[in-house]
Amino acid sequence: MKTKPVQLATDAKLEEFRNHNPEEVTKEQVIVPPKVSGRDARISKTVRMRLRFGEMLRDEAYKRTAQSGEKVSEADLIDEALNEWRKKHKIPAD
After folding, report:
1. HEC readout, the chain
2. pTM check: above 0.85
3. Residue 94 belongs to some domain of the structure
4. I need a labelling partner for 3 at 20 to 30 A (CA). Which of 14, 19, 72, 83 fits?
């Protein structure tokens, strides 16, 4: 005879399984959003750009993600480029 796929070997695990409440939020499930000031909150914009610039963004995001081991998005690269542009043209921050 085959063993059952769910192995609840101990009574404690069986009771935990029976008493599980899916609507109860545990400490591990609580997601705390990062604190962002009003001016730094993210918004969505739809922009038109040349195909080569879109490909450059995608490739650079992939390369930096691979190098750092953390997700680098195309939006992060655009933020960085706009900040550099602001510094280059000496536009004061808000």
Report:
1. CCCCCCCCCCHHHHHHHHCCCCCCCCHHHCCCCCCCCHHHCCCCCCCCCCHHHHHHHHHHHHHHHHHHCCCCCHHHHHHHHHHHHHHHCCCCCC
2. no
3. yes
4. 19
How confident is the model over 31-73, as pLDDT tens digits?
776 677 777 788 888 999 999 999 999 999 999 999 999 999 9
The reply to whether 40 falls in a domain is no
Residues in contact with 65: Cβ distance below 8 Å, sequence separation at least 6, in sequence order: 71, 72
Ranking 23-27, 40-44, 83-87 by mean pLDDT, the lowest is 23-27
Tally of structural domains, the chain: 1
Question: In this structure, is residue 63 part of a structural domain?
Answer: yes
The answer to whether position 12 is within a domain reads no
Domain range for 71 is: 48-94
